[in-house]
Amino acid sequence: MRHVPRAPGPAPAPPLGVTVEVLAFGVQADERPLIEEAFSGRHELHCTDVFLGADTAPMAAGYEAVSTSVNARLDARVLQTLAVGGTSMIAQRSTGFNNIDLDVAERLGLTVARVSYYSPYSVAEFAWTLAMAVNRRIVRAGNRTRDFDFRLDGLMGRDLRGRTVGVIGTGKIGEAFTRIAHGFGMRLLGWDIAPNPACEALGMEYATKEELLAESDVVSLHVPLVPATHHLLDAAALRAMKDDAILVNSSRGGLVDTDALVAELRRGRFSGVGLDVYEAEAGLFFLDKSVEGIDDDTLARLVTFPRVVVTSHQAYYTREAVTQIAETTARNVDDYVAGRRGENVLVPAAPTA
């Protein structure tokens, strides 16, 4: 049983050694046993597959802490509802935090933590899965053979060996992606605010964004979504790419101007596009819309292109990565209970000494 809701206002941090009740929003069926195992013996966890938003935030009344997924929208209204209901700690189960109004959280005295690291291989391997799927027309081929159509017309791909890959963002995930590209025998181009020595050791050359887009046969995005990277690939950047390039985005949807991308696809450009994220995915991804349909005309148009593969933000979704995410989330709650400010804390409830 969960606690009876407390009086309005954020609750003080519990004393050392005290456990708290945690309500985890947006928990997927495959994720649930892993997060329950991580919290076992530490805090009392309650899971729901409902996503946190303005309409569902009152469900958290009485819970000291809540855990949220990447597609939760924690704006001022939601944060205010959480604080009034007694929540004082938010543990987000993702690295990105562009969905949280941190200024409002700080003003309300809420502690906010994220998962700053999990298996970079999960995302890097999936990014290459998308690249290979569109390059070798895997989805179209699979659909054909289900109908016993075994023709090869329209399924011709290209060798990757000797071609150029452009890696935008060469942090941990970008580095893992680069290592796979190196194994394919590709020329490596990178763009970032600072070079990664591990990537340079593999033979990566760093270039301007314009040079990278103009020369790359495959472009993959691995940067966070911040104001400076919003629509990093806008209409002009997309036009700068090769007509037969492959574009992969497994980072954040807002990095790409989707309307501009659709316009380029309508002109017949790009050999393939693999998207695991979409800039208006909140309220769509992770949900079953197969019966009611969607009213997002841009996404509906995007998925009609035969050279495009769209998946539902699943690049991180491996047992290893989700286990790390769950364990880190549990440790973040431990740190909150103990009054520690760990490396994952984005907003502390009070200044540290």
Briefly characterize the structure:
With 353 residues, the protein is an alpha/beta fold.
Describe this structure in words.
Belongs to the D-isomer specific 2-hydroxyacid dehydrogenase family. Keywords: NAD, Oxidoreductase. With 353 residues, the chain is α/β, with parallel strands linked by helices. The protein has two domains: 21-118 and 318-347, Rossmann fold, CATH 3.40.50; 120-310, NAD(P)-binding Rossmann-like Domain (Rossmann fold, 3-Layer(aba) Sandwich). Helices cover 32% and strands 14% of the residues. It has helices at 32-39, 76-84, 102-107, 120-135, 138-146, 172-184, 197-201, 209-215, 235-240, 258-266, 297-302, 319-338, and strands at 21-24, 44-47, 65-68, 89-92, 111-113, 164-168, 187-191, 205-206, 218-221, 246-249, 272-275, 308-310, 345-347. It has a seven-stranded parallel sheet, with helices on both faces. The longest helix has 20 residues, at 319-338.
What is the level 1 CATH name of the largest domain? Alpha Beta
Helix content: 25-40%
Characterize the largest beta sheet: strand count, sense, and whether it forms a barrel: 7 strands, parallel
What is the CATH architecture annotation of the largest domain?
A: 3-Layer(aba) Sandwich
Give the mean pLDDT. Answer: 92
Which oligomerization state do the chains in this entry correspond to? single chain
Q: How large, in whole angstroms, is the Cα Rg?
A: 22 Å
Element-by-element helix/strand order: EHEEHEHEHHEHEHEHEHEHEHEHE
How many domains in all? 2
What is the tally of beta strands? 13
